[in-house]
């Protein structure tokens, strides 16, 4: 027993000594485009922290007018103030957006469309993970409601402005977890059976299918869309799971930083020549493999129609 414990301790000690090298190896791709964005308008959901904040920082550094759309306006203002000071770009603005409330989504979109006549990049970054069972204001299970339906409605409300501003792009943050997901149309809101791990995975598959169908709907408009897996990132997303928080504390030296996790979002938002790959899935700044369920056109079309019905919208 003592020998085993000693070996385990030695192994963990070795891992932590090697942590910087290991993390660097797994850090993933880097957005290498030198594109500058003066005059461009960007909306990023959930950009008051984590990956979204680092994405906003880099886009502001390149001269874009960046809207941080988030639920916690005070945290948003703190992030925006930091980004403005860091980038010397005063055009970093905060607007309230609660993706768990369709009234808030509509209010944000109405305000934005009144304020801005252009929109070049929409990054649907915000999300919840491993959330205990609950429902949104509108009665949707929280994962599917926030991660999918909230962004579905937001995109619907802003898409005409994106078309008017073309060429423009929509980036949807998904996850490698989509491989485990399944769209359970008979129990979309988890009322019959609920597991918060699988609920998250289901919502990430929904992000993939939305991106796939959206690319078809937008063909020929000059608006392109991409799904992104940011990697395993030190993130506040873990806060709803004790086990994940514990693992995060143990293995955070090996995870990507928020800046590293933002690289694929930045790549899909800015890299030249991605237009033919609209609807595809990216990880580490390159196109990557998707699960068979994420390639199912019939499921993508059905989810689109069900989403429109749940939200009470008509979207050709």
From TrEMBL:
Signal sequence annotation: 1-19
Assigned GO CC terms: photoreceptor inner segment
Top-level taxonomic group: Eukaryota
Pathway(s) this gene product operates in, as recorded in its UniProt entry: Cofactor metabolism; retinol metabolism
GO biological process, one term: cellular detoxification of aldehyde
Catalytic function, reaction form: all-trans-retinol + NADP(+) = all-trans-retinal + NADPH + H(+)
Keywords: Lipid metabolism, NADP, Oxidoreductase, Signal
EC number: 1.1.1.300
UniProt-listed CDD domains: retinol-DH_like_SDR_c
Family classification: Belongs to the short-chain dehydrogenases/reductases (SDR) family.
Alphabetical list of PANTHER family matching this protein: PHOSPHATIDYLINOSITOL-GLYCAN BIOSYNTHESIS CLASS F PROTEIN-RELATED, RETINOL DEHYDROGENASE 12
Name the record gives this protein: NADP-retinol dehydrogenase
Higher taxonomy: Eukaryota, Metazoa, Chordata, Craniata, Vertebrata
């Amino acid at each position: 027993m003592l020998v085993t414990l000693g070996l385990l301790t030695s192994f963990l000690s070795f891992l932590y000594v090697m942590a910087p090298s290991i993390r660097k190896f797994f850090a993933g791709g880097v957005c290498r485009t030198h594109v500058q964005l003066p005059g461009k308008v960007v909306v990023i959901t959930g950009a008051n922290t984590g990956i979204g904040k680092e994405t906003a920082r880099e886009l502001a550094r390149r001269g874009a007018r960046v809207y941080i759309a988030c639920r916690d306006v005070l945290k948003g203002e703190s992030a925006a103030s930091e980004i403005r000071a860091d980038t010397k770009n005063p055009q970093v603005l905060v607007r309230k957006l609660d993706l768990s409330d369709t009234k808030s989504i509509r209010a944000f979109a109405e305000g934005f469309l009144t304020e801005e006549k252009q929109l070049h990049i929409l990054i649907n970054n915000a999300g919840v993970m491993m959330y205990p069972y609950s429902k949104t204001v509108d009665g949707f299970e929280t994962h599917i409601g926030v991660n999918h339906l909230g962004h579905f409605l937001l995109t619907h409300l802003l898409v005409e402005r994106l078309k008017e501003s073309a060429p423009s792009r929509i980036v949807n943050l998904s996850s490698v977890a989509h491989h485990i997901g399944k769209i359970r149309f008979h129990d979309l809101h988890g009322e019959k059976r609920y597991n918060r791990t699988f609920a998250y995975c289901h919502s990430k598959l929904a992000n993939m299918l939305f991106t796939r169908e959206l690319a078809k709907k937008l063909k020929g408009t000059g608006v392109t869309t991409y799904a992104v897996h940011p990697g395993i990132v030190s993130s506040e997303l873990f806060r709803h799971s004790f086990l994940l928080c514990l693992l995060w504390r143990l293995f955070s030296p090996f995870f990507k930083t928020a800046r590293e996790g933002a690289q694929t979002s930045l790549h899909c938002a800015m890299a030249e020549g991605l237009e033919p790959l609209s609807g595809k899935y990216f990880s580490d700044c390159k196109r990557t493999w998707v699960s068979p369920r994420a390639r199912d056109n019939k499921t993508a079309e059905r989810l689109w129609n069900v989403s429109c019905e749940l939200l009470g919208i008509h979207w050709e």
